[in-house]
Amino acid sequence: MPLEVEPAREDASERASVVVIGNFDGVHRGHQAVLEQASRIHPGRKLVAVTFWPHPMAVVRPEKAPRLLTSLEERASLLTDAGADHVEVVGFTPELASWEPERFIEEILRPLNAGTVVVGSNFRFGHRASGTVDDLRAAGLEVLDVDLIQTGHTTTSSTEIRRLVAAGDVAEAEQHLGRRFRFSGIVVRGHQRGRELGFPTANLPVPRDRAVPADGVYSGYMRRLDVDEPEVWPAAISVGKNPTFDDVADAVVEAHVIDRDDLDLYGVPVAVDFVDFLRGNVKFTGIDSLIDQIGLDVDHCRASLRALPEGERWLRRPLRPRPRE
């Protein structure tokens, strides 16, 4: 008769997940540091990122709701890239905003089998942000609070990055994000002015809840999002309304792919990555002066992008003045 052996019981702590909590708008360097610490504390355990949608301020004080750096889909993708095994999106409602910290722990964290919680040192939760890391520890959870990241002399935060983006300082925003600021969307048909002027553009409408750089002209890159290995195109990018034509419609992001006029991107999802600010928007007195300035902008973009480490990969044409008629 074979000996029956009772299966070994798995220690509950071995099944427990490591949970990081936050809004994670932008998934900037500070957020990345939290995820990095979380992945190290118990290697091999499931790492769950808990985020909220919509932004809590949009529910609690809609008039103060910030313009978001990323869409929910982009946020989830960035969290996964930063090490999360699973992204748990919690719908933020007025009811959730009224929960005391204990209820948040029991109804959000317990179902995720949280054993360890990793948060930023400024983390608060529950009704009127009354919950702290001490409440998490009192509930029997292992807690690691990660110091905020300093970039230069400034603390990295979503709020600071939004301020920089709104001011057009995309180069400094890049330092806090750990990557270039990206605006993505589906290309729509515009007024066709760019094509008529000799500089066709991919037009992206700007949702009212999305952050976008200050009105002006920028250097950057564009790529398709519907292919696995997209070609990266150097681009001259315009943000805002067109003052020369007295446009009154909502602002748009327009990207002209340098040295290409053969692209058909209508209905295609694309991403525009901002590198540097060139100039503010100006109202020109005539079409000829506008065309001349756009030509200068494109030349400036071509030169500045070529100076970057990756410039030679994506700017293969010789650098030369744009012909004038």
From TrEMBL:
Catalytic activity entry: FMN + ATP + H(+) = FAD + diphosphate; riboflavin + ATP = FMN + ADP + H(+)
Record bears the keyword Nucleotide-binding: yes
Keywords annotated in UniProt: ATP-binding, FAD, Flavoprotein, FMN, Kinase, Multifunctional enzyme, Nucleotide-binding, Nucleotidyltransferase, Transferase
Pathway, per record: Cofactor biosynthesis; FAD biosynthesis; FAD from FMN: step 1/1; Cofactor biosynthesis; FMN biosynthesis; FMN from riboflavin (ATP route): step 1/1
Coiled coil (residue ranges): none
Enzyme class: transferase
EC number: 2.7.1.26, 2.7.7.2
Keyword Flavoprotein in record: yes
CDD domains: FAD_synthetase_N
Domain of life of the source: Bacteria
GO molecular function, one term: ATP binding
GO biological process, one term: FAD biosynthetic process
Domain Riboflavin kinase, residue spans: 176-306
Sequence similarity: Belongs to the ribF family.
Protein's job: Catalyzes the phosphorylation of riboflavin to FMN followed by the adenylation of FMN to FAD.
Protein's name in the database: Riboflavin biosynthesis protein
Organism: Propioniferax innocua
